[in-house]
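Bug #77: duplicate submission created two jobs. Keeping one. Sequence:
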Amino acid sequence: MPRISLKIVGASGQGINSIGAIIAKGLKRSGYCAFGYREYPSLIKGGHASYQLDISNDQIRSTETKVNVLVALNHHGLELNIEELKQGGIVLHVTPGWQFPEHHRNLIAERSLRVIYFPVDDILKRLGARAILSNVLLTAFVWSMLDQDIDVIKSLVGATFAKKKALLELNMRCIEEGYSFVDPEQGTVSVTLPPPDRGFANHLLITGSQAMGLGAVHAGVRLYAGYPMTPSSPLLSFIAELENKTHMVVKQAEDEITAAQIVSGAMYMGTRALTATSGVGFDLMSETLSLNAMIENPTVFVLAQRPGPATGLPTWTAQGSLLQATNCSAGEFTRCVISVSNSQDAFDLMPVAFNLAEQYQISVIVLTDKQIAEALYTQHPYDLEKAEIDRGRLVVDPEKLELLKSSDRFNPHAQGGVSLRWLPGSRAATYCAQGDEHNSIGAVDESSLNTKLQMEKRLRKFHGLKAGLPAPHLSIGGRSTTTSDWIDTGDEIELLAIGWGSTGDVFQDVMHSDELRGRKIAYLHFTYLWPLRTQELQVLAKRSKRLVLVEQNYQGQLGMLIRMECGLDIPDKILKYDGRPFFYDELLSSVMERCASASENEATSPGFEHAGSPS
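Kept job's structure:
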């Protein structure tokens, strides 16, 4: 799979993201798939930040550590990022009179790097333009290096300033100046992209948070309440931007406790409502989670993961909250934990989450992470006819409401533990909803028999939920299949990797690499993490030469749940917990090392890798 990588670096507030976003839009229109990845400190301005685009004419879902082009908006980028360039790469900078230190001069010579100084201040002065237009100049020059049509960039910028004639003309002049610039030392410099695939022109460019927000609208969400906390904040911002179009009620609460309570109250009244938070914010919501378990009130929480504990790394990524999601809050009760992995299931799984919540009258926790929330995806248009709304055993028919008895609400003998549910204000029998243990009508009852019956009722849902969840997704050599179909082939798997969340897309790219083409490398992806369905994994493990767990946390938390559920231990682990996602080339290297060692020793006794980044 051909891949070209472009990285823009500088300080927060310098317009790094705007350059990356315009180039990504232009490339998508020109028939390329772009994947955008951001790194930035928890500062509004300053610090060191970057925006990387990985570009291909094939579907691409990940970032690599080495780049073809480095665009440095200040000298810090030259100092910190020049070593990331590939052989023959291009350094584009705007720092006048910059002198590289000796070790960087040696690096430039060894890798045959081409260094271009772009005199942005001189050009702006000549044009009589303000410094804010420097990014338009740089964008146009990068666009010319990519050998793309100038009219595409003009169209994108022109759409922004169509109603401001003077600004539009100045922007067009900046585009022409930047596009036509030729470095006096290097001459015309270009980056060769593979032939385009015009099918990508009709795709969307969307972040994981935007996809999840659209999925929430598609699921019928009518109220969103939240408190800003990265990386859940982009979801709040996006849904708020849509408020006038969707007529959804959007409330920024004073804290996470209030947000959880608002959403729980709305769901109790029959309105689909959503909240999202991260880390310690979810700790504050956990008491409400427990209350909803007792009153059997369906709710959906989005838990956007970042490294912890405490404040941790607010603007970086991790998969360290899986055990928090499966075990937080007081007492034993049924819950469902699912994880999105990209812009497709960030959209698709929101209706699923609400349906499960209402079918089983439980809380559903949807995991995402900073990588998914803020990555830019080239996304095939969504199927807007796909989702179905299932409100479970909610009674709204007037004739059926009249037949209800108060004891129907928490009937301990209800099939599957799921009793009838009706809304406050309905013309029907009344019942109590409270946090104390209660009998079938909701009245406090601490007797031994009632406690036993109600506990069994609430936990009986777990078995029905588990039986109805889909199997983990299996792909072998980059192609989707099922466990039964693979077993029927009689073939053996060379290496079976197990993962979840944002790890899945990176591993898909790894399986499509030229280095692993034709090899029986398999990946089993868990979307539904609790209850955990392990029967497929147990079957595949017996037909695999080597198992490896791939996670972005220190403990291997999915591996811990697998061992707890079925006793299968996976000692070979590729774990990463430095705040960065798995990068394509580093994960490929780790997989190839394991394939090589498996070939040397098919009996293999895999070691426990435990490092800050994979090796």
